[in-house]
What we know:
The complex is a heterodimer. By secondary structure, chain A is α+β, with helices and mostly antiparallel strands. Chain A has a single domain (41-181, 213-326), classed as Cytochrome-c3 Hydrogenase, chain B (Orthogonal Bundle), CATH 1.10.645. Helices cover 50% and strands 13% of the residues of chain A. Chain A is built from 15 helices and 8 strands. In chain A, the strands form 3 sheets. Chain A has a 3-stranded antiparallel β-sheet with strand order 1-2-3, with no helix packed on it. A 3-stranded antiparallel β-sheet of chain A has the order 6-7-8. Chain A has a two-stranded antiparallel sheet with strand order 4-5. Chain B has a single domain (3-128), classed as Beta Polymerase, domain 2, CATH 3.30.460.80. In chain B, the strands form 2 sheets. Chain B has a 5-stranded mixed β-sheet. In chain B, strands 6-7 form a two-stranded parallel ribbon. The chains are: A alpha+beta, B alpha/beta. Chain A binds chain B through residues 9, 36-43, 45-46, 81, 86, 208-211, 229-233, 236-237, 295, 297-299, 306, 308, 310, 312, 320-321, 323, 325, 329-330, 332-333, 362, and chain B through 25-29, 31, 33, 53, 55-58, 60, 62, 72, 74, 76, 78-81, 83, 101-102, 104-106, 113, 126-130, 137-138, 142, 144, 147-150.
Amino acid sequence: MGEKIKIGPFHPELEESVYFKLVADEEGIVKEVEIVNGFIHRGMESLVTNKNFMQNLILTERVCSLCSNNHPFTFVLAVEKISNIKVPLRAEALRVIADEVKRVASNLFNLSMLSHLTHSHELMKDTLEAREYMQDLKESIWGNRMDMSVNLFTGVKYDLDDKKIDFILNKLSIVEPKIKELQSRYENDETIRERCIGVGILPKDKALELGVTGPVAKGSGINRDVRVKAPYSLYAIRPELQPYIKHRDGCDVLSRAMARFDDVIEAIRIIKDVVSDMPEGKTYLEKRPHIPKGESVVRTEAPRGELIYYLKTDGTQKPVRMRWKVPTYTNWEALKVMILGDKVENVTMILNSIDPCISCTER
Amino acid sequence: MSTSKIIKSFKETLVDNCSIKEDCDSYGNVSAWIKLESKDSMSSVANIVKSFKGRCIVATAYKNSDDSHTIVYHFDIDGTIFNVEMNTNDNMFFSITPTIPSANWAEREIREMYGVEPMGHPDTDRLFLDYSIAKGVLNEYIPLSKLQRGVSETDIMWKKVKKDIDNG
Lengths: 363, 168
């Protein structure tokens, strides 16, 4: 009989509420793992059917804060598909800029949590400092550090003039070398290497079987990036913007962290490319859309991976059914594979490596 | 891998037991909508998806006016989405998780939200909701304090809301 260990649901090393019930042997190796969910379930899928489309645009931005832009972005794409709306090219560009800024900030937050868990506080401080440039950018351009309120059903709510574009490019010119330096430090830091290499292994065949996405899939050598596999918005119109996916096949915590750095560096390249060649024109269509009876499935690439929205409408102002699936929904099940056979002391580190978003997952 | 080759495989296996329509968004992404005549054909669908190394992204359920349920599986095969729809009027369907493990959570969520049982599912545990809450919760009013585990043991606020609902 092994030792029973419980972690959570509230614990200083847990980003959000999760409850682990583990059984470990004398050497601290996890032999059994049970994960209990349901601490942040809010019944949002029921709530959205009681609200109109405009109210749901506001509500979807509040599913979660780190990927708050992706929810309304994907929701408007689903509505626009049913309504057969094609938004102006400038709006597509502005949507992609906002999305990539969020990607940089979200991934840097997760990476700083990794250094926090390894007690590399200098590294954590520097990572959060680099992220702060993106937070400043969000606050200056969109007026808020988390919820940017970018999307409309026919376009976007904001625009960029030359002054703002210069401001963005200036911030990126500061943050880009910092991130490249940070990636090298994470890759070579002795403590990080000791705590992350060979930890939380998710073999490629298991990753394929469980359907994991985002940096978790990339860390096991699988590319399921929606921007590449099923490009949407400006990624489809200008294929050169699609991210270059580096092959990471360590299948461990470090591989997943490096995949996040790759995503951040590509996101900065995409933002620079888009703002340097902004299409002219309107930022939204003035005619209010009619949302007819229909059904659509749309997906985008959130910082943690694939986000999919299913929408069913009946011609009224409220959806009949709205369903969304976030990356953590499938990445979560992979935790059992990663944790089994690893040390108890690595459990919170492994959890952090999937960048769990429980409020998204439980809705 | 071409979408038409996969659709051909669906047509050959399911013969007349389904209707298939293709869809393309304004960015050129093709997807397919397959409607099954019988829910029993879902196991054949799962085998086709597995043979093409596809995965289940998620599954959606909703209740119809005649109390039956519609379940739509969303599969990804090499970047193309295949939406496969079926109906059940006896609150059960056959789980595809043993064939496609990525369907695990989606089927468990349907079980607890709509009370529709995925027969043969390897995991009988609740996914998000506490055991004190009956299955099929998405069709009922449930207090948030009960819905979330460990938030509160009291019903004071809910009793007030329930009284208002009961009084119309």
